[in-house]
Design goal:
Keywords: Membrane, Transmembrane, Transmembrane helix. By secondary structure, the chain is mainly alpha-helical. The protein has one domain (14-72). The chain is built from 3 helices and no strands. Helix 1 packs antiparallel against helix 3. The longest helix is centred in the N-terminal third of the chain and has 39 residues, at 3-41. The protein is elongated, with a radius of gyration of 17 Å. The N and C termini lie close together (8 Å).
Amino acid sequence: MGAEECRPLGFLIGLPFAVVALFLSLIGAVVWILGTVLSCLCPCCICCAGLANLAVSLIKLPIKVIRWFTHQIPC
């Protein structure tokens, strides 16, 4: 059994968690849009920039979850 045959198993195991992460990334996208609009309207609000950075991390979450689960499968 080679490395090519067992990696899809990690993908399938991680899929439900990636779906949850996908919903979190959608929330992150909304927060990112709101944070960007608020930081453009009021540049003195530095917290909006931090909020936008947090939202970008949420948007990248599904990819990170799938990669983590894929790499956990020993081959």
